[in-house]
């Protein structure tokens, strides 16, 4: 139920916005798109430093990707939605052989273990993505990444 | 059963294509595959359908029915009644459907409604008089079959603190086991009257799991149970005592026997015990593994039973393996289901008599 909560007020009203980084050329086919939009701000996850290139671990030979993201505030209730956006984006862009783990950076979220467990339970992710309101929210966050 | 060392092999006999999304679960019809009745397997999927596969004269399986337009979301689990006449299907749409085979068609004859949201598992008791369901709403429901495909909810069991992943009845007695996202295993029994209660809870303090428990399976005799988890272990439990007789003074009739760790690299979604004593596991690393008890272990009397891996089938599928099920009538035949949308039929060779 928590993952489906709609935005009723801004969780983080004044986020720090960072400059967009010059993209370096990627050597692997795995792309975590930093253009994913924050659920409550017009900024991308990169601009809010929720994800950086360093927070993405790719092992192409083992078909493995791990994304460690940093919520903008410790009590960010949007953390599961952000994590879900990252998972959906990777599910849609990567070949199906890839195993993906999405985690909150250690010490950056009050309910870190609970968020991690939920994001990596594929049954709960599958059920969440059958919720039209939630899917719409995810698609909105991902819209800019498909340009 | 002797294991002919190094000769054990799992051969892919057939891949069953048809589902348009991940296949979550499988069930062998228990009265088929014997006495000239062709073997029958049900599979259910994220594509909202159930497919019935039947073995033909050549030995290969064909899809003989597609059960659709009833569930409006993922069908997560399916189970045949012990008579093989009814199939129950549990769906994320909060309902459980009961299907009856009429000729070669399947007709939905009842809908079990009551869960608040996703139903994740369904199981029939040994006599076919009771059905258990469980789901995201943290509850376990017990339904009694009245005459004429009428089902009445006789108990709603609360106790799990998170969603319940699977329910499974003991093979002979009316004792129900549920496993959950709250990491615990709960044992439910009837207490004299018509009331059901939690006879035992196996958590981390009882040498239980440290993350989501996804599935369980009893052995043929019902005196052992295996559970599998997101904590990457399988656990074996001694279930030889009837928990209905538990006095309730804290004595736990079911005990931890051993933990199989270090074999799996990703979540174990499914586990199933064959009538020949082989445990199959299906995991998020696309592999199927087989385990057997070390019967000739000299320390067995001292340390208790131990189990080890006897086969690892890497890349059994190209994505996560969600379900592994031994054919109850032919324990050399295993079926598996995967996120890759396929059901596969495997034949185990190399076992000597």
TrEMBL record, chain B:
Gene3D superfamilies from the xrefs?
YVTN repeat-like/Quinoprotein amine dehydrogenase (2.130.10.10)
The stretches annotated as WD repeats are 16-54, 68-100, 112-153, 157-188, 206-247, 314-353
PROSITE patterns the record matches: WD_REPEATS_1 (PS00678), WD_REPEATS_2 (PS50082), WD_REPEATS_REGION (PS50294)
Among InterPro entries, the record links this protein to: CIAO1/Cia1, WD40/YVTN_repeat-like_dom_sf, WD40_PAC1, WD40_repeat_CS, WD40_repeat_dom_sf, WD40_rpt
**Protein origin, superkingdom:** Eukaryota
Listed Pfam families: WD40 (PF00400)
**Gene Ontology CC terms, in alphabetical order:** cytosolic [4Fe-4S] assembly targeting complex
Q: Which GO terms describe its biological process?
A: iron-sulfur cluster assembly
Q: Which family does it belong to?
A: Belongs to the WD repeat CIA1 family.
What is this protein called in UniProt?
Answer: Probable cytosolic iron-sulfur protein assembly protein CIAO1 homolog
Q: Which organism is it from?
A: Dioscorea zingiberensis
Source species taxonomy: Eukaryota, Viridiplantae, Streptophyta, Embryophyta, Tracheophyta
């Amino acid at each position: 139920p928590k993952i489906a909560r709609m935005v009723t007020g801004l969780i983080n009203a004044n986020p720090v916005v960072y400059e967009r980084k010059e993209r370096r050329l990627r050597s692997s086919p795995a792309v975590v798109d930093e253009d994913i939009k924050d659920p409550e701000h017009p900024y991308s996850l990169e601009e809010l430093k929720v994800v950086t290139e360093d927070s993405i671990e790719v092992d192409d030979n083992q078909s493995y990707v791990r994304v460690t993201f940093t919520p903008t505030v410790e009590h960010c209730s949007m953390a599961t939605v952000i994590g879900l956006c990252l998972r959906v984006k990777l599910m849609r862009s990567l070949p199906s052989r890839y195993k993906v783990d999405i985690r909150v950076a250690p010490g950056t979220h009050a309910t870190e273990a609970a968020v991690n467990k939920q994001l990596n339970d594929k049954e709960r992710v599958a059920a969440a993505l059958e919720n039209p309101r939630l899917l719409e929210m995810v698609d909105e966050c991902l819209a800019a990444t498909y340009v | 059963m002797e294991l002919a060392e190094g000769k054990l092999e799992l051969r892919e006999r057939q891949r069953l294509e048809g589902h348009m999304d991940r296949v979550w679960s499988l069930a062998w019809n228990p009265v088929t595959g014997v006495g000239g009745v062709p073997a029958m397997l049900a599979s259910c999927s994220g594509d909202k359908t159930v497919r019935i596969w039947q073995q033909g004269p050549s030995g290969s399986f064909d899809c003989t029915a597609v059960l659709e337009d009833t569930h409006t979301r993922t069908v997560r689990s399916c189970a045949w009644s012990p008579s093989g006449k009814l199939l129950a299907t549990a769906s994320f749409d909060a309902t459980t459907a009961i299907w009856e085979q009429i000729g070669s068609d399947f007709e939905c004859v009842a809908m079990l409604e009551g869960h608040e949201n996703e139903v994740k598992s369904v199981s029939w008791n040994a006599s076919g008089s009771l059905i258990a369901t469980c789901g995201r709403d943290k509850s376990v429901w017990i339904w009694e079959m009245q005459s004429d495909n009428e089902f009445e909810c006789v108990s709603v069991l609360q106790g799990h603190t998170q969603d319940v992943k699977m329910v499974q009845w003991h093979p002979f007695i009316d004792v129900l086991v549920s496993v959950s996202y709250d990491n615990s295993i709960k044992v439910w029994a009837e207490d004299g009257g018509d009331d059901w209660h939690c006879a035992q809870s196996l958590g981390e303090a009882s040498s239980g799991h440290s993350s989501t428990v996804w599935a369980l399976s009893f052995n043929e005799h019902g005196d052992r149970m295996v559970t599998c988890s997101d904590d990457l272990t399988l656990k074996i439990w001694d279930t030889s005592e009837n928990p209905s007789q538990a006095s309730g003074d804290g004595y736990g009739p079911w005990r931890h026997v051993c933990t199989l760790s270090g074999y799996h690299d990703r979540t174990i979604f499914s586990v199933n015990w064959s009538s020949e004593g082989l445990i199959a596991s299906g995991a998020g690393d696309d592999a199927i593994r087989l385990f057997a008890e070390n019967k000739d272990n000299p320390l067995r009397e001292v340390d208790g039973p131990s189990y080890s891996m006897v086969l690892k089938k890497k890349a059994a599928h190209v994505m996560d393996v969600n379900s592994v099920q031994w054919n109850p009538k032919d324990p050399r035949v295993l079926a598996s289901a995967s996120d890759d949308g396929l059901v596969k039929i495997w034949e185990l060779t190399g076992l000597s008599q």
